[in-house]
Design a protein that fits this description.
Blueprint lengths: L1 H26 L3 H9 L5 E5 L1 H10 L3 H9 E10 L2 H17 L3 E9 L2 E8 L6 E11 L2 E12 L2 H14 L2
Antiparallel strand pairs: 1-2, 2-6, 3-4, 4-5, 5-6
Helix pairs in contact: 2-5, 3-4, 4-6
């Protein structure tokens, strides 16, 4: 009888742990996943790159700045939408709301030049200036782009990445 009671208690505790674990996983959902839940029918394209592909890219990358950035990355997602300006603006506003209402997202940079706007937000920045997730929203007329980076990313490496991209674009 006593053993049966212990078994029930252990099962109850395990069930509680499973429920807590699944709730924690739901909270750890990436921004791109949240956005796709509300915008999937309007998305023009979506590209995701997982850790295995990132590891292959790291080995082949010659640029040290880009390679250093890839070392910190575990997941990359790029979502684009090309629709009329009103629809694009609506989804940009929706994405901004998801960031503002998401727990822990901190706005890092907001730029506006003409009809182009860029917002960069980070999640989980620690004392070493590393973030768990970096989200970039970009709107330009009739095009909207979401870039979602996850890993243990040094925020300062973003400027290194930007310099590497600018350099490679000049060499084209």
């Amino acid at each position: 009888m006593l053993m049966n009671t212990y078994t029930k208690i252990i099962r109850g505790v395990l069930l509680c742990l499973m429920l807590i674990g699944s709730h924690t996983l739901a909270q750890a959902q990436r921004f791109s996943d949240k956005f796709m839940e509300v915008a999937e029918s309007k998305v023009t394209s979506m590209v995701t790159v997982n850790g295995e592909v990132i590891n292959v890219l790291k080995k082949k990358e010659a640029d040290p700045g880009l390679r250093a950035f890839l070392n910190e990355l575990t997941f990359l997602c790029v979502i684009t939408m090309e629709k009329d300006a009103k629809t694009i603006s609506t989804y940009y506003d929706m994405a901004q709301s998801l960031l503002k209402n998401g727990k822990g997202y901190e706005s890092l940079l907001w730029l506006k030049e003409g009809d182009q706007q860029v917002l960069i937000a980070v999640l989980g920045r620690d004392e070493r200036n590393k973030a768990k997730e970096i989200v970039m929203l970009s709107i330009n007329g009739e095009q909207f782009t979401v870039v979602d980076l996850t890993g243990s990313i040094t925020v300062d490496k973003l400027s290194t990445l930007a310099a590497s991209i600018k350099k490679s674009m000049q060499n084209l």
